Amino acid sequence: MKTILIALDPSIFSYGLKQIIATMPQPTRIETADTLDAAMTLLDSRCVDLLITDLHPEVLGPVKAKCPEIKVMVYTAADERTFAIDNLLAGADGYLSKSAKKEEMEYAVKTVLNGEKYMSATVRQEMLDQLWEKRRAGHKGVY
User: Any alpha helices (H) in the chain, and if so which ranges?
Assistant: First the structure.
């Protein structure tokens, strides 16, 4: 059974997310922390499989240092085009907007728990566009 720690403020997001995850077919144990500090304290005593938290790129390194196998999904209202790629490159395993629908949330959680990276189609396209531009800039005259 996988264990998920939800550390979101305000707690209404934790409650809603907990309800969605509880209905998923994959058996999970769900814990919540009211603050990221509380989540970090919990991680001092034991590791979980997945931490879902808001945009806190500065904790990705410390969280992974405490629990090397942990997966971290950023669940935030912050603009995907501005923050998603940097957070994924910094070590997040998933990035999901709080405006995502229930089905996308379920898919994102399942994907990250299965050891894959998750990003929305918008973020994926942005990454591909950036890669394409970088490649074209390095190969002038080839295309």
Answer: 11-22, 36-45, 60-66, 80-90, 102-113, 121-138
